[in-house]
Each structure stands twice: as structure tokens, then as C-alpha cells.
Design brief:
The chain is mainly alpha-helical. It contains ten helices and no strands. The two termini are 23 Å apart.
Length: 145
């Protein structure tokens, strides 16, 4: 994930909507330090934070993450648990968990943590899964069908 592109996009969104980082943090119910660190590229956003920001501004996660140059969708579905969505995608494509992990170069134990909702994938792993399935991050998340 390109952290500087994400930070640049978030900064532009805040500027365009006349938000200060602390005010925006309250609006999406995250600690102010989270927004500050994201803007300074000090940490990658969590999956939940990406969805909160994208939902708030009604933009695609792909646009927010710098994977698209514009936000094309105008409405989004509520995200199902990400583990359920990943399991659904792998099964739709005819993959076993083992084969999917091997071909996508993901940790098999981590995959089972995801589909059993014991752990949330990182945003980098969600991007990797989207590239593997040749689809958008929003599709992987279930925001777009």
C-alpha cells in the first residue's frame, strides 16, 4: 500500500470538507491520534478505519487507498464480516483454503483466523486478495457486489 498516496487523499478530503483532523476523528469515532498518524504516514490504516473513512465520504476504498484515480461508485453495501466475504470469494472461484493460500502467498493459519473471525486481515492483505482475484478492494470487502 502506498501510504503517502493514502495520506494525500485523506488530507485532500479533509481540506475539501473543511475538517480538522481532531474534528474528523470524532465524526468517525476513532482516536484523534489515529488520523494524525495516518496523515503523517506513521502507520497503515486498519481495515475498519478505511471503511469508516470511505463510508463517511461516500467514496470507494480503492480511491481512498490510491488504487483508483476517481471514486466511481455512488452507493455501497454494509460490509459483511470480512472473513465470511473472503471465504465466499474463495469458494466461488473454486479454491480450497489451502490452494488459495498457496497461490495467493498467504499464511494458511492466518486465512483460517480470518474466516473464523478471530483476526482481521491487514489492509495490505486485502489489497493482495483483490489483486489476486482481479477485483476491487470494495468487492473483497462486500461494499460493492
Amino acid at each position: 500500500m502506498n501510504m503517502s498516496k493514502f495520506a494525500e487523499t485523506l488530507d485532500a478530503l479533509l481540506f475539501d470538507h473543511n475538517f480538522k483532523p481532531n474534528t474528523f476523528a470524532k465524526a468517525i469515532d476513532v482516536p484523534p491520534s489515529t488520523i494524525t498518524r495516518l496523515l503523517k504516514c506513521e502507520r497503515a490504516p486498519s481495515l475498519k478505519t478505511v471503511v469508516k473513512i470511505a463510508d463517511y465520504f461516500n467514496i470507494t476504498a480503492d480511491f481512498l487507498l490510491g488504487l483508483e484515480t476517481e471514486s466511481s461508485a455512488t452507493s455501497f453495501n454494509p460490509c459483511p464480516p470480512v472473513g465470511e466475504r473472503i471465504k465466499q470469494l474463495t469458494e466461488q472461484q473454486g479454491f480450497t483454503g489451502y490452494r488459495f493460500c498457496k497461490e495467493c502467498k498467504l499464511s494458511e493459519p492466518r486465512y483460517y483466523d480470518w474466516i473464523n473471525n478471530n483476526h482481521e486481515p491487514s489492509i495490505n492483505n486485502i489489497i493482495k486478495i483483490a489483486k489476486f482475484f482481479n477485483c476491487s478492494v470494495d468487492y473483497v470487502l462486500g461494499r460493492e457486489l
